[in-house]
């Protein structure tokens, strides 16, 4: 026999044994559990190679239309999301292992990917203490100041509206966390958005085979082709966070730093128990999650204004009744109880195209469970199919239309009710209140002061607005002051806001 034949002869009993065991396990597994219909895929790799790299929302929506309320991991209706991820959140909302995005790129320290454990609980509490609704008063003055700066930027450089959104959202969170403002085109801010987008890109299901099949992390390190890329992203991300913390420490030494979350946090006993990476990722997560999501959400509503202008008219009736029809004054926080149409607009913005998490965020079941005849094993990965639910006619009348009236139901101020823009259950966005307020004051003022129109020959395709843009605007749109009086109002009320420095 030739040597390959010898090797084959020698290993074939092992292969047969391995295959038999695999089959036996599969039979036992199928007897014990009953899973929803599976989408046909490849042996071993399942559906990994069918998932598009970007804009998975429309892809997952098609699956939902075809396969019904539950597919392999996708929960495709609000009813089942509520039943499992909210009512049974204690066992449904942990996180699976992500050896690339959490292990290598985040050194196990990004809170959004930490499974249910004591570390997650400690971190969630720290974040909750800064971001909860009790903290309104801390954020409101910054949101007021920064949204005035936002209007100024829209007036002066309308074609840079997207960068202005990014600066605005970043500066609010930066002010609260690091006690300093950010300016347009700041290098560290640009890098922060880059690393946030790199994380999102790497997190897309199917992008990293090891995150779908964590067993691959057992390969020798030299064979893990994803590892050098992961290390490179980790280093870049860590440096962005580290630069902020170092600058802060310098200002503290020089006695020029005002009190902020970071100065308080650096003095707590919790931080003494944290490793360096964990400490940096607490700061970094706040900056990353606090900046990217709000700029995207404001962009969505602008797309809604340009493509469905009928609601803008009605929003302005509400705004003009409160602030004057001739640009008398800007909308203020105190006007909120009278501007319920704007609150409905913001909710509709979160529902309409849930671009922050197009196919939800994967969670892991931690205990075997039964639901409506299905038996799920512990370890099953679930997600709420955000795009499919938001655009289902079974959930919403005329779902593709931007139609704030659907939320004019007396619950405009209950920002989480009626959509899944912030996720369900125990993993619901811990910064939802701050995010909602960021969007509310920005949109109230932008819609009062500016017209948003599609550019002839460049219609906005609202079904493919990208979530990852690499510094470019999400779409092109024409931004003009509503009237000369509105432009004058911005000059009068916002010029000082741009000059404030701390
Ligand atoms: C418009 C704004 C925002 C939107 C649409 C949004 C959306 C989301 C979504 C969909 C999740 C995942 C929920 C899940 O896994 O079920 C999430 C998680 C999270 N968000 Fe937000 N978010 C926003 C603003 C913010 C802000 C301002 C902060 C902080 C400054 C923040 C911090 C976080 C954190 C730390 C998590 C992880 C929570 C955990 O895993 O326990 N978010 N957000």
Automatic annotation (TrEMBL):
<dbReference type="GO" id="GO:0004497">
    <property type="term" value="F:monooxygenase activity"/>
</dbReference>
<keyword id="KW-0349">Heme</keyword>
<keyword id="KW-1133">Transmembrane helix</keyword>
<feature type="binding site" description="axial binding residue">
    <location>
        <position position="429"/>
    </location>
    <ligand>
        <name>heme</name>
    </ligand>
</feature>
<keyword id="KW-0175">Coiled coil</keyword>
<dbReference type="GO" id="GO:0005506">
    <property type="term" value="F:iron ion binding"/>
</dbReference>
<dbReference type="InterPro" id="IPR002401">
    <property type="entry name" value="Cyt_P450_E_grp-I"/>
</dbReference>
<protein>
    <submittedName>
        <fullName>Cytochrome P450</fullName>
    </submittedName>
</protein>
<dbReference type="InterPro" id="IPR017972">
    <property type="entry name" value="Cyt_P450_CS"/>
</dbReference>
<feature type="transmembrane region" description="Helical">
    <location>
        <begin position="6"/>
        <end position="24"/>
    </location>
</feature>
<feature type="coiled-coil region">
    <location>
        <begin position="231"/>
        <end position="258"/>
    </location>
</feature>
<comment type="similarity">
    <text>Belongs to the cytochrome P450 family.</text>
</comment>
<dbReference type="Pfam" id="PF00067">
    <property type="entry name" value="p450"/>
</dbReference>
<keyword id="KW-0472">Membrane</keyword>
<dbReference type="GO" id="GO:0016705">
    <property type="term" value="F:oxidoreductase activity, acting on paired donors, with incorporation or reduction of molecular oxygen"/>
</dbReference>
<keyword id="KW-0479">Metal-binding</keyword>
<dbReference type="GO" id="GO:0020037">
    <property type="term" value="F:heme binding"/>
</dbReference>
<keyword id="KW-0812">Transmembrane</keyword>
<dbReference type="InterPro" id="IPR050364">
    <property type="entry name" value="Cytochrome_P450_fung"/>
</dbReference>
<keyword id="KW-0408">Iron</keyword>
<dbReference type="InterPro" id="IPR001128">
    <property type="entry name" value="Cyt_P450"/>
</dbReference>
<dbReference type="InterPro" id="IPR036396">
    <property type="entry name" value="Cyt_P450_sf"/>
</dbReference>
<keyword id="KW-0503">Monooxygenase</keyword>
<keyword id="KW-0560">Oxidoreductase</keyword>
